[in-house]
Design a protein that fits this description.
Length: 128
Amino acid sequence: MQVFNAVGRRKSAVARVYLSAGEGKIIINNRSLEEYFPSPLLRYVVCQPFTELALSESFDVKVNLYGGGISGQAEAVRLGIARALISYNAELKPQLRAAGFVTRDAREVERKKPGRPGARRRFQFSKR
């Protein structure tokens, strides 16, 4: 049995995805998808590459996930699944790219600057 793996990142979340032939089970950090992501919207985000390609019952997915919040984690898993599907079959790449699942969202949190309350925030100006 061949296993296809890929890494997906979003904000500070990192997902290592392992794709193998199976019946559609998604396991994240040894928990089911429904248990790890209780929100139906986040479950939808994770499963988008499979629904786009109509392959939802063809693969089992195992994910090691760490860092970030739940939204960033869900999008990191989506990118990892898309990349693993491309390593499985490179002909799927144009369809996944058209849906926007291959592009890594490079936006990161800007660091806090010294002497300031936040990254860009300034203390209130007082004339007197």
